[in-house]
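Task 17 of the worksheet. Students: predict the tertiary structure of the chain below and write it out as structure tokens. Keep your answer in the requested format; marks are given for formatting as well as content.
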Amino acid sequence: MTNHTLEKLEMLLKSSGYKVRYEKGNFKTGACLLQNSKVVMVNKFANLESKIAAVAELARTVEIDYNLLDEKQAAFLHQLKQTQLQL
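Model answer:
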């Protein structure tokens, strides 16, 4: 659980056409997807573990085209979908 992990998740989503924004808000979780608009909102006041968990969960659930990803990102996404993040 490091900033590098969060950056890898952000790049994974950005490569798939999603925009990742950090905003203040009254989020119940650390992130949300805005009405199928390919914008991911992350609560900038959440702690690092919450941000990673929320963005990882979104990356697991949204449709990501593997053809848009490079080899390392595709492997990372495959690993992410195979594992369950536990805090």
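Marker's comment: The longest strand covers residues 19-23. The chain has one domain: 3-82.
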